[in-house]
Amino acid sequence: MMSNTHMIRMETLEKNTERLEEGLRDVLNSPDNTPLVALLEGYHPADIAEVMERLDDDDSIRVFRLLDSVRAAEVLDELDTDTARYLLDNEVPERIAALLDLLPMDDAAEIIAEVTTREKQKAILQDLFTRSPEDAEEVRELLSFKPGTAGRLMTDRFISLRPDESVESAFATVRQGSEEAETLNVLYVREGERLVGVLSLRDLLRARADQLITDIMVRDIVSIPADMDQEEVARLVGKYDFTALPVLLPDGTMAGIVTVDDVVDILNEEQTEDFLKQSGISAEAGMKNLSYFSVPIWRVVRSRIGWLLLLFVGGTLTGEILKSAQSSLHQVTALATFIPLLIGTGGNTGAQSVSTIIRAIALGEVRGRDLLLVLLRELFGGLLLGMLLGGVAFGWTRARGNSLELSLVVALTVVAVCTWANLMGSLIPMLAHKLKIDPALVSAPLITTLVDATGLVIYLAIARLLLTSLH
User: Fold this and answer.
1) Are residues 224 and 250 in the same domain?
2) Fewer C-beta within 10 Å: the chain N or C terminus?
3) How far apart are the first and last CA of the chain?
4) Entry pTM
C-alpha cells in the first residue's frame, strides 16, 4: 500500500502543472519578462514542457527563450512532436546546437530528426560540429539508421573494457568514463570493436584486484542487430529484465547500447499507437505524443472519419439484413426484442478476442504457425462462454413469459454467436499478421460491425428452423 507521504507528494506533483499554467497565463499578458522568469524558477522541465504544449506558438517560444540552457535542453527533449517542431523551425540554429550538445546524442538525433527542412537540419549539425565534432559525427551516424530501429535509439556512451586487463585496471577505466556513460550497471568487454563478453559492476566489485576480466566476464551475450524494430527491442527488454542491450552492426562491430529509459518511451508510444488503431483512429505521425488538449480538433476529426465511414458502410449491411427479414419479424414480433441483446453479446465477445490475440501477437506468444491451435482454443472458449451465457439467456427469456421455442432460439443463438465471434476475433488478426499487416489495424469496431451483420443472419436462420410459426 502506498504511504500517505507518497500520496501527498504525488498530489503535489499533479498540481504543479495546474499552478504553472495558471501563473503563466497571467504573466504572459505583460511585456515584462521579469515575473515570467521568476515564475519558471524551480519548476521541473517536464512540468514546463507539459504546460508549453497547451500554450499558443508565440507564448511557447517566448517561454522557451527565457529558460537557461540546461533546462531548455531538457524541456526540448520532453516536448511533444508538434511543439518541438515549431521551436526547432523558429529558433536560431546556434542555440539549438548549443542545447543539443548538453543532451545524450541519441536524444539529440531524435530531436534533429524532427526538424522539417533539410537546410535547417544541416545548419544545426554544422554548428554542433564546430562545438563538438565527435558529438556531431555520432548524431550523423544515428540519423543514418532507419527511424524506429535499435540503431536510431542507441548511444555509444558505455564503459568498454579489455579482456586482458586486470580488475584493478578496470576500476580505473570505470572511474574515468563514469561521468559520460549512460549506464554503469553493465560493462562491455571488447577486443578491438568486437563484443566478446559482458559483466555487471557487482561482479567487478566482488572480484579480486589481480583477476583478469576474461576470467570473470560472461561470454553468453544477448545482443540485437541495429536494424531491429524498436517494438521488438522493447519486448526483449521487458521479457528478460535487461537494463541495456548491446547493438551490433552486420559485421559484428558493437555500435552502441539501448538503455531501459529509451524502452519506456517506446512502450508508451507503441501502446498509444495500438490503442488508437484498435479504437478505429488513424495514428497520424506526431499525434501519438500529443496530450488531449494539444491535438487540434480538425486533426481529431481527420484521424477518425476514415474508419467511421468504413464502419458506416458496414453498418448498412445490418440494415439490409433487417429489411429482408421484415416478414419474419412481423410474424413473430418478439424476435425483434432480442436483437440488441444478441448483437451486443456478439460484438463484445469479438472485441475481447481481438484484444487478447493482438496482445499475444505483440508479445510474441503466438505466431503464424500457431493458427490452428489458436482457432481450436478460441472455438472451445467461445462454446463455453456461449453455453454459460445461453443458459442465462434461456432462463431470462422464459422468466419474461416467452414461449419455450423462442427461448430456445435466443439461447442457441447466443451459443452460436459467441463461438462465431470468438473465431472471427482470433482468425482476422492472425491472418493480418501472416500477411504482414499490423493486426492492430483490424480494430474492435470492425469486428463488431462484422459480427453484428453475421449474428443477425445466424439468429434469423435458427428462428426459421425452430419456430413453427415461421414454417
Assistant:
1) yes
2) N
3) 64
4) 0.61
